[in-house]
Structure to design on (190 residues):
């Protein structure tokens, strides 16, 4: 699959078929919302865990030195916290561009904070996309993040802001917090 998935995403769902459209954010959309939305609330999806396995050639890194950002990995029984946004279908022009580096839109059940379950969309970068970096040790992930930056800023800031946001919502994510701790240690050593 190509790096730029915008055209593929336009063919995946007919957005005008939805009475209402929700999108689930599990990474930077928890703390950095750069689009208009109708309503937003805390939510979660099941069967997935966050992992720093996706390369970022366009936001938190460069083609020569890609950063690492989040994607979702299927894990039976897992719960992934995030934010749900009710949006107009026109916002996907922006979101498809923002998430163009290997992410595809998938339909999923979103569990809202008031116990409602709604159908929504989530962007996931699967192992078959050209920017996928895959599994690595926490230290290897942290070193790559520590040494990467791109047009959206230092890759480590992505981790620190996400970890802070998760704590703000009183949510735990051991993978994110392990990478954060490794980055702090690398900062002390440099």
């Amino acid at each position: 699959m190509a790096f730029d998935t915008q055209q593929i995403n336009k063919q995946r769902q007919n957005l005008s078929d939805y009475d209402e459209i929700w999108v689930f954010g599990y990474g930077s959309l928890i703390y950095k919302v750069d689009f208009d939305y109708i309503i937003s609330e805390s939510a979660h999806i099941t069967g997935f865990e966050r992992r720093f396995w996706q390369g970022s050639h366009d936001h938190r890194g460069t083609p020569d030195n890609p950063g690492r950002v989040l994607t979702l990995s299927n894990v039976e029984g897992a719960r992934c916290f995030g934010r749900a946004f009710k949006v107009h279908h026109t916002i996907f022009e922006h979101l498809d561009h923002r998430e163009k580096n290997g992410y595809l839109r998938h339909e999923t059940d979103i569990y809202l904070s008031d116990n409602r379950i709604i159908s929504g969309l989530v962007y996931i970068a699967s192992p078959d996309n050209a920017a996928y970096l895959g599994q690595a040790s926490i230290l290897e992930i942290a070193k790559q993040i520590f040494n990467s930056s791109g047009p959206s800023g230092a890759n480590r800031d992505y981790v620190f802001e996400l970890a802070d946001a998760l704590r703000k919502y009183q949510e735990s994510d051991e993978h994110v917090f392990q990478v954060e701790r490794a980055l702090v240690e690398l900062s002390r050593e440099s």
Notes: The first strand starts at residue 21 and ends at 25.
